[in-house]
């Protein structure tokens, strides 16, 4: 419920506050969002695996975003497009986390479908 309220407040604020970003600022926002998405997918995977830690999630959310923005800023000052490296690195992590989430959910589905027993093709056969 809190999540829905937070999303509604965020969307309302975005629609009501007239603020524009220059094209120079957009790359920083983009890499920050990619880094934040990586943390969200990692947190979702950890939650499904039963190893979620809120402190790790919050620190990772802000640290990953700040690091991505910092690397992009340093790259722009050096004349090197480090934003591509940031996007590729976090993109790979997002796809790995998504794959992990998919595997966890499919395993749960298969266990529920098989009545909780390990009778799938990949499960070890018991005698």
Structure description:
With 127 residues, the protein is mainly alpha-helical. It has one domain (21-113). Helix content is 78%, strand content 0%. Helix 2 (23-49) runs antiparallel to helix 3, helix 2 packs parallel to helix 4 and helix 3 packs antiparallel against helix 4. The chain is globular and about 55 Å long. It starts with a helix and ends in a 14-residue tail after the last helix. The relative contact order is 0.11. The mean pLDDT is 87.
Set out the fold topology.
Elements: H1 2-16, H2 23-49, H3 54-78, H4 82-113
- Total DSSP E strands: 0
Mean pLDDT: 87
What is the H/E string?
Answer: HHHH
Please report the number of helical segments: 4
What portion of the residues fall into strands of 2 or more residues? under 5%
Could you tell me the radius of gyration in angstroms?
20 Å
Overall SS class: mainly alpha
- The parts where pLDDT drops under 50 for at least 5 residues are none
Overall body shape: globular
Quick description:
The chain is 78% helix and 0% strand. With 127 residues, it is mainly α. The chain has one domain (21-113).
């Amino acid at each position: 419920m809190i999540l829905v309220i937070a999303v509604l407040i965020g969307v309302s604020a975005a629609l009501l506050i007239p603020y524009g970003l220059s094209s120079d600022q957009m790359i920083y926002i983009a890499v920050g969002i990619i880094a934040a998405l990586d943390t969200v997918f990692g947190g979702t995977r950890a939650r499904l695996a039963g190893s979620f830690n809120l402190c790790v999630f919050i620190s990772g959310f802000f640290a990953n975003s700040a690091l991505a923005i910092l690397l992009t800023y340093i790259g722009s000052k050096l004349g090197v497009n480090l934003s591509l490296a940031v996007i590729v690195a976090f993109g790979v992590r997002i796809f790995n986390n998504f794959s992990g989430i998919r595997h966890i959910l499919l395993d749960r589905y298969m266990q529920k479908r098989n009545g909780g027993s390990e009778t799938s093709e990949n499960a070890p056969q018991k005698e």
